[in-house]
Amino acid sequence: MPFRVVIHTGYDYPEYHAVMEEVRAYLVQTGLECEVIPMISDWSPQATVQCTRGFQAALASHELWTRPVFEELSGQLCFVCKLGTGMDTFDLEAAEDHGVTVANAWQANSSAVADMTVALMLAANRRVAHIDRMVRSGVWWTAHLSGQLEGATVGLIGFGGIARIVRRYLTGFGCRVLAYSRSARPGPNEELQVEFVSLDTLARESDFVSVHVPLHDSTRGMIDSDFFAKMKPSALFFNTSRGPIVREKDLIAALRNGVIAGAGLDVYESEPLQADNPLLAMDNVVLSTHVAGNTLPAVRRVGRMAADRVIEYAAARRVTINGRQAGRESDRLRVDSSDGS
């Protein structure tokens, strides 16, 4: 029986589809059967089951991989690889219970997410989107003097792969970089060119604050009104990780009441944003659509890495990630998800 693979498409634009077709062709060349499923607007668990039934492996996008999904596909599905890093849409315990090995394309799009992080910093600080709207409406002069990224203090919440690339990019701006990491010893780290501090210190001293932790139980809602109250009134807040890490109503209140000066967001508590979300009416916020990891080189790296995981699993019924093997005989694949993209 041939090993069949389905690719769940996460974005509905031609360039992304073209890359997924490249991935499909690559898998077919190795002797696997492969189909690409176009993007579905509502990736419910039922839709995930319907689009995955009949396949032994799946390349996953934004769909929900809940316990009922693994129960429905039990005995048939044996391997899933996320087209990205964040695993917050997976019930990993349920996957283990039903003998499904789960992997991800760890850090394949990290530099792209770091790109977007710095882009949002520059755009929000200089109010690029607001000025663009003013020019298009016939207003030439705008009464606003911003700070500069050059020489600013930037606080990174989490210090995994993406945050380390952001730190490297910020070196060119002469920034002082603070970082909060539960596993790091407080104080300056000359090797990493960063100063590890408490979350409170990071909030108080940073001109720019950027979130780079994965979403799980201990980080859900960790950024709330108490955190925003500690930030400078002139500070800006950024999130390219996962929306539910931030209590969105608290962020909206902080922006509305002048507790902080502005924000740049690629992710939200609920996606896509509803038309009545207050963030849409705020001129001091730059909004993106959870596409920080989507550059052409990054999507190609993600697709190739995920495909290679499938090929390895199909040949040996196990995969090796960062020197660790996992497969049907293992307890559970502990996927690398030190970043949230």
Could you give the topology of this structure?
Blueprint: E1 4-8, H1 14-29, E2 33-37, H2 45-52, E3 57-60, H3 67-72, E4 79-82, H4 92-97, E5 101-104, H5 110-125, H6 128-136, E6 153-157, H7 161-171, E7 176-180, E8 187-189, E9 194-196, H8 199-205, E10 208-211, H9 225-230, E11 236-239, H10 248-256, E12 262-265, E13 285-287, H11 296-316, E14 318-321, E15 324-327
Parallel strand pairs: 1-2, 1-3, 3-4, 4-5, 6-7, 6-10, 7-9, 10-11, 11-12, 12-13
Antiparallel strand pairs: 8-9, 14-15
Helix pairs in contact: 1-11, 5-7
Largest sheet descriptor: 8 strands, mixed
When the domains are counted, the total is: 2
Radius of gyration: 21 Å
Our measurement of the CA-to-CA distance between the termini, rounded to an integer number of angstroms, reads 35 Å
Question: What structural category do the secondary elements indicate?
Answer: alpha/beta
Strand content: 15-25%
What is the CATH architecture annotation of the largest domain? 3-Layer(aba) Sandwich
Helix run count: 11
Within CATH, the superfamily of the largest domain carries the name NAD(P)-binding Rossmann-like Domain
Describe the protein in words:
By secondary structure, the protein is an alpha/beta fold. It folds into two domains: 4-108 and 294-327, Rossmann fold (3-Layer(aba) Sandwich), CATH 3.40.50.720; 110-287, Rossmann fold (3-Layer(aba) Sandwich). It is 34% helix and 18% strand. It contains eleven helices and 15 strands. It has helices spanning 14-29, 45-52, 67-72, 92-97, 110-125, 128-136, 161-171, 199-205, 225-230, 248-256, 296-316; strands spanning 4-8, 33-37, 57-60, 79-82, 101-104, 153-157, 176-180, 187-189, 194-196, 208-211, 236-239, 262-265, 285-287, 318-321, 324-327. It has an eight-stranded mixed beta sheet with strand order 8-9-7-6-10-11-12-13, with helices on both faces. It has a five-stranded parallel beta sheet with strand order 2-1-3-4-5. The chain has a two-stranded antiparallel sheet with strand order 14-15.
